[in-house]
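Researcher: Here's the sequence for the chain we discussed earlier.
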Amino acid sequence: MTLSEVKTPSLQEPERPLAVVTARRPLRWVAAAGVLVALAMVASALITNPAWEWDVVRLYLFAPSVLRSVLVTLQLTALGIGLGFALGTVLALMRLSENRLLSWVAWGYVWLFRSVPLILQLLFWYNLALLYPRLSVGVPFGPEFFDFGTMDLIAPLTAAALGLALHQAAYAAEIVRGGLLSVDPGQREAAAALGLPRARRLFRIILPQAMRTIVPNAGNEIIGLVKGTSVVYIMALPELFYQVQVIYNRNGRVMALLLVAAIWYLALTTVLSIVQYYIERHYGRGRR
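Model: Thanks. This is the structure I predict for it:
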């Protein structure tokens, strides 16, 4: 046997790494291109169409009367949400109470105010003097201590805030109740076992955990109420929608003034959405 016939074992060649091939999805690019074309068409329709009258929009966007109407809209929203969620929290606790009377009264309130349209509720409170010209305080079916005129007590702004708050309370009650029920019952039992008072259990243990569920739904209600305040135009309150109606009835610039209202509603809801995002992130820290 010669040396040339001796076969030396060859070194094993190293394995080549697998190449990662990205899947081709041409339909995504087609859809993205279609969306871009649609957005360009919308932008062109808004910018090039002189019927929008952007010069009129710029003239009235920060007009003093419009700014005052924005403040009225914010005031109605704050009153409706603040009073509504305060009453709604009480109603939610009543619904969860073991006392059947409290539970049924709260259920009846939610049923009634969710069943009647908001515009009817506003008209009812606005015309309350037709039913009760004077209201009295005293013993039921007994003597009266003092009375006062309904027209003097319930002004248009008061009637609007009252109607919005009472209507909002029915929805807030269900939002808060759902949030409280989302908390693990073991948390309540553990807090009770530690001997914590009921109020402290609610505000320090249960409610912070329930806020994770409450905040997204509450944020939707707040944003909805900002737009829902436009319903009070039937009471001739100078909120945003009513004010732009007054202006375009005077000068005939309908679309431009409606665009002014739309821009302000977009701005207000955008700010509220950003605030909602940070509140949700605050209460969601324990989940990460």
